[in-house]
Write a structure and sequence with these properties.
Length: 340
């Protein structure tokens, strides 16, 4: 009925105009005044409907102007207005998808550029001293005699070559880990068994660990070995964050939220500095002395391969919480099996 509302009102205005002319012709002025009032009310109703649509569009335009692209044009009308509303929403959806894809591509390109710079820097820093030391050893070796000083120089050079070569090998191995994550074999994993195993690995730690599962029989669609790797990494990071605290505490919780399974790892440690919050999942970025910077990046890639997501909230000197969300349904192309 709503799609005919404007047509009905316009038709009513035309009929009322003819009726008004007839009444005036018959000198029925009081009734004519009533008809004029009705005409004004119908005209105002048409104006109000038009303004309502305009206000909706202005609201949408303002939201887009301020960066809110999740807005949609809500309309229960059918016909031309309904089709227009659907077309606008489809256009916005297409725009959001293209914008998201462009941002993702730009972010990925930036990440790869950073990775190439890091690789180049690290490899050059390792290769340069190896070449230099090799030349030094060669020059010493071609001499007819080798005194004690020459021998010590050669020994130190060989040891330095060994250290730098091993450092380069470890670096390449860490890079290989990021590019060789196996495809997850998704099964229905009981969280209680998963948590029991994690708890056993950290028995005797100074920092106390507390586990919570609601409901107690909660299962997650996951590759158990890969998810264990993620949780071990997160718990280790949490323990390091609480290393200097006499009352360090870590909460590992599993629960359901809005139809999805969630696992969170929270600590009351020193937290993450605000400047590092948007970089902690970037490969090879680390705030730890001697850290490789691949742990959290590896965690994110594993969770992404499960079709889930991982995020972090943190406050300096108050602690951090890493949240893992698993999909409501198992990923397509993987068969969900009962874990045994």
């Amino acid at each position: 009925m709503k799609q005919y509302r404007i047509f009905i009102k316009v038709t009513l205005l035309v009929l009322l105009a003819f009726l008004l002319a007839f009444l005036i012709n018959k000198a029925l002025y009081f009734t004519s005044a009533l008809i004029v009032l009705i005409i004004l009310l119908v005209a105002y109703s048409l104006y109000y409907d038009q303004q309502k649509v305009i206000r909706k569009m202005e609201h949408m335009i303002n939201n887009i102007h301020y960066g809110d692209l999740n807005i949609s044009f809500y309309s229960t009308a059918k016909g031309a207005e309904g089709n227009l509303a659907r077309s606008m929403n489809e256009a916005l959806s297409t725009f959001r998808t293209r914008l998201y894809n462009s941002v993702v591509i730009e972010t990925e390109n930036e990440a790869w550029q950073k990775l190439v710079r890091v690789l180049t820097h690290e490899i050059m820093n390792s290769i340069a001293p190896i070449i230099s030391l090799s030349e030094t050893i060669t020059e010493r070796a071609i001499q007819n005699e080798m005194n004690e000083d020459d021998y010590q120089t050669m020994l130190q050079s060989i040891q330095s070559i060994h250290r730098r070569s091993k450092g380069l090998l470890d670096f390449v191995e860490n890079y290989r880990k990021l590019t060789k994550i196996p495809a997850p074999v998704i099964r229905s994993v009981p969280v209680s068994e998963l948590f029991d195993h994690i708890e056993q690995l950290f028995v005797g730690e100074k920092t106390s660990l507390h586990f919570s599962i609601v409901p107690s029989n909660l299962h997650i669609p996951a590759d158990r070995s890969l998810i264990e790797q993620v949780l071990i990494n997160l718990v280790k990071n949490a323990i390091e964050a609480c290393a200097d605290l006499p009352d360090g505490e870590i909460q590992i919780k599993a629960f359901r939220k809005e139809g999805s399974s969630m696992i969170t790892v929270s600590d009351n440690g020193r937290g993450i500095v605000s400047e590092a919050m948007d970089k902690i999942f970037v490969p090879f970025f680390t705030t730890k002395p001697g850290g490789s910077g691949i742990g959290l990046s590896l965690c994110r890639q594993i969770i992404n391969r499960h079709g889930g997501s991982i995020s972090v909230t943190s406050e300096e000197e108050k602690g951090s919480t890493f949240s893992i969300s698993f999909p409501q349904e198992p990923i397509r192309d993987f068969k969900l099996q009962k874990y045994s």
